[in-house]
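Take one record.
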Amino acid sequence: MKSVTPFLMFQGNAEEAMNHYISIIEDSEIISITRYGLDQPGAEGSVMHAAFSLKGQTFMCIDSNVKHEFTFTPSFSIYLTCESEAEIEKVYGALIDGGGAMMPLDNYGFSQKFGWIADKFGVSWQLNLPSEA
């Protein structure tokens, strides 16, 4: 086995999501994008395959060329450990914009501050500020 990589399937907004995420999380970048061309199964210019990195963790994503009724589920989430209250507030505010809270940012006893949200793309995020931060 060479690696294990989280894979996100979007329906037409993969590039927008990647750009949104790398604008919020420091030390992040789009690694590669391969786009559908004319006469290929996906919409021309949409993401056939892409890779991006958030704080060193590589993700892959696509714009599905097959329409489906399912979307992301909160049972799989991206977990961020933040270093300061300012950082968790900033990241939470940027990710919840257009999305919704499953657990609003608060002290739930197991950490100084925690929030669980679904962003505007439907991707689930858990943000944690450990008590020792």
Notes: The chain has a mean pLDDT of 95.
